[in-house]
Amino acid sequence: MREFSDFMVMPLALLEKSINKRISILLKDTRVLEGKLTGYDEYMNMVIEETEERTAEQSRRLGVVILRGNNVVSISPL
Amino acid sequence: MREFSDFMVMPLALLEKSINKRISILLKDTRVLEGKLTGYDEYMNMVIEETEERTAEQSRRLGVVILRGNNVVSISPL
Amino acid sequence: MREFSDFMVMPLALLEKSINKRISILLKDTRVLEGKLTGYDEYMNMVIEETEERTAEQSRRLGVVILRGNNVVSISPL
Amino acid sequence: MREFSDFMVMPLALLEKSINKRISILLKDTRVLEGKLTGYDEYMNMVIEETEERTAEQSRRLGVVILRGNNVVSISPL
Amino acid sequence: MREFSDFMVMPLALLEKSINKRISILLKDTRVLEGKLTGYDEYMNMVIEETEERTAEQSRRLGVVILRGNNVVSISPL
Amino acid sequence: MREFSDFMVMPLALLEKSINKRISILLKDTRVLEGKLTGYDEYMNMVIEETEERTAEQSRRLGVVILRGNNVVSISPL
Amino acid sequence: MREFSDFMVMPLALLEKSINKRISILLKDTRVLEGKLTGYDEYMNMVIEETEERTAEQSRRLGVVILRGNNVVSISPL
Residue G16: which CATH number? Predict the structure, then answer.
């Protein structure tokens, strides 16, 4: 494996820093989930609490969600 | 492999805690399955008992189901 | 690898218990196969005997079938 | 890896027994190939001789075909 | 790994025997390429020379082509 | 593994050189993201800051984004 | 791993020989990119300079592009 620059933020390290904070997640099926990140693993599987799902039409509460990483397009800290 | 925070809930650990409890599973084909989780493996393949399938149109009983993890979008404890 | 609970049913163990019994298999292409499970491997490739295929329109006999696991959504003992 | 039952037929073992015999192969693109299986590997890549392709509309001879396993849904001995 | 029969033709061995010979390749996007196979690797990536592409509508010369194996459905010696 | 030429620019090395610079990213869902690259890993997962999303219809600010590499088609330094 | 013939051209070796030369790349989304290949890795990720994109409707300059290999169908030296 190659060396990575000391000056950069690894993607998983930013997830680590987002633990117990609110994030927004864009899924491949175009839904957006918002909630508090309470866990993740190296495949970007995540545990989200107080989750709300937002589509173009509606919003609804999902509570605690285990999300499989391969459905995820992008993640943003809120 | 990198270290994970002690304070977080790993996705598979939350599945472990859900054993013998009812969960709701969203599949890639947009179906929702509800039932009692009685087993899983590291690929998120799962064994569900007393399973009910719900689509926009209908609901029906499926009994015991072995579900392949790569069809799963997300899982919520009920 | 992490430890799994003693109290749960691993997905492949349930396949093992279904050997020589009738199962129903839902495929990604929405077809349903029913037949006697006579073998499987760790990828959930399966050997099914006395197989019948059922779609919304029709039913037909397929005899012995080797099924690739990556086409499978879920499996239910009958 | 876990132990497999002595009483079952592993999927690749059934391919092995089908060497030099005629098989029918259903592909993901819904075509059906029929021909004599003369080889395979652990990815279910196969060598088929005297191959005939059948779609809903027509049938045609393809001769010798190397088929990539990831296009295969299921295989049946004839 | 399991033993393979001595009497069969491994898929990659048939590619090896096709080196410097003309082959026909069916791609997942339904195009057909014809040309002389001058190289391949274990992923079925291939080097084709004097390549001609044929679709339902037209035929055109592509010259030398490096083809990624995961786009390939099947290969036939000509 | 095979040797690579000394004269060429490895794809990940060009990402390394783009750290803290603005890049444009084309996604499989046809969206274009522009922003400052602040991190990446060997799967081309990336951390983008001051991100703007542009579709054919509109443009909007996304702030900090963790982007999963398997959604990426191509990346261009700006 | 099996032995490969001495007489053949490995796909990655042909990429190596194309360094600093112009190539044409067909993508899965049907676009064609033309430009100078300045780098690649074992996944066929590539660095292309002086890149031009051509679709059925139009042509436009993209400059330097890092292209992920899993979007590539085929590559031709120009």
Answer: 2.30.30.100
ipTM of the modeled complex: 0.87
Residue A2 in domain: no
Asked if F38 and A10 come within 8 Å (Cβ–Cβ), the reply is no
Task: Measure G4 CA to nearest chain E CA, in Å.
Answer: 8
Structure tokens, C72: 């499978």
Contact criterion met (CB < 8 Å) for A65 and B75: yes
Domain assignment present for C3: no
For residue E55, which of E29, E22, E21 has the smallest C-alpha distance? E29
The DSSP annotation for B45-64 comes to -EEEEEEEEE-SS-EEEEEE
Residue F4 lies in a domain: no
Evaluate whether B23 touches B76 at the Cβ level (below 8 Å). Answer: yes
Kindly state whether residue F18 falls inside one of the protein's structural domains: yes
Instruction: Find tokens 């599949």 and name the residue.
Output: B27
Q: Residue F29 — φ and ψ, nearest 5°?
A: -85, 15
Q: Cα(A4)–Cα(C24) distance, rounded to whole angstroms?
A: 49
Give the whole-angstrom CA distance, residue D8 versus residue D75. Answer: 18
Domain enclosing residue C57, as ranges: 28-72
On whether any CB of chain E is under 8 Å from the CB of G4, the answer is yes
**Shortest CB distance from A65 goes to which of B8, B69, B76?**
B76
Q: What is the pLDDT of residue A27?
A: 95
The model carries a pTM of 0.88
Instruction: Say how far apart CA F53 and CA F40 lie, in whole Å.
Output: 19
Q: Tell me, yes or no, if D21 comes closer than 8 A to chain E by beta carbon.
A: no
In chain A, which residues have their Cβ closer than 8 Å to the Cβ of F12? 2
Total tally of structural domains belonging to chain E? 1
Whether the CB of G19 is below 8 Å from some CB of chain E: the reply is no
Position D1 scores a pLDDT of 45
pLDDT in tens, F11-21: 999 999 999 99
Q: pLDDT tens digit string along D8-64?
A: 899 999 999 999 999 999 999 989 999 999 999 999 999 999 999 987 788 899 999
